[in-house]
């Protein structure tokens, strides 16, 4: 669903069916998430996202990890 902060200690979440729920807490953590976006570079057709990398049957012999976030660092250390 979608959420919005209401007041200093509240969140309202609207589910896909339109039903709304309100929650309150002393502290609220906002974790927005993200989606992978492949850059437009030569060889783009050979690239995979981190989600796709987790589904590989076997590890690649060679790989280039693009990105500076924690997911890129984790994959660089795994491979």
What does the model show?
This protein has 79 residues and is of the alpha+beta class. The protein has 2 domains: 1-33; 35-79, no CATH class. 18% of the residues lie in helices and 18% in strands. The longest helix has 9 residues, at 70-78. This is Glutathione reductase. Keywords: Disulfide bond, Oxidoreductase, Redox-active center. It comes from Cymodocea nodosa.
Give the number of helices.
2
Structural class, please?
Answer: alpha+beta
Q: Kindly, what is the distance between the CA atoms of the first and last residues, rounded to a whole number of angstroms?
A: 35 Å
Strand element count? 3
- The whole-angstrom Rg is 19 Å
Question: Which regions contain 5 or more consecutive residues with pLDDT less than 50?
Answer: none
Mean residue pLDDT:
86
Q: State the share of residues found in helices, binned by percent.
A: 10-25%
Please give the domain count.
2
> Strands of the biggest beta sheet: in what spatial order?
1-2-3
Q: Strand count, sense and closure of the main sheet?
A: 3 strands, antiparallel
Strand content: 15-25%
Apparent shape: elongated
H and E order: EEEHH
Task: Quickly describe the structure.
With 79 residues, this protein is an alpha+beta fold. It is built from two helices and three strands. The chain folds into two domains: 1-33; 35-79, no CATH class.
Fill in the keyword field for this structure.
alpha+beta; 2 helices; 18% strand; FAD/NAD-binding_dom
Topology:
Blueprint: E1 2-5, E2 10-14, E3 20-24, H1 50-54, H2 70-78
Antiparallel strand pairs: 1-2, 2-3
């Amino acid at each position: 669903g979608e959420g919005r902060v209401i007041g200093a200690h509240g969140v309202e979440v609207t589910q896909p069916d339109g039903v709304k729920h309100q929650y309150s807490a002393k502290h609220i953590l906002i974790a927005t998430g993200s989606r992978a976006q492949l850059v437009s570079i030569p060889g783009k057709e050979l690239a995979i996202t981190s989600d796709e990398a987790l589904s590989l049957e076997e590890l690649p012999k060679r790989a280039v990890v693009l990105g500076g976030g924690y997911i890129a660092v984790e994959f660089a250390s795994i491979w």
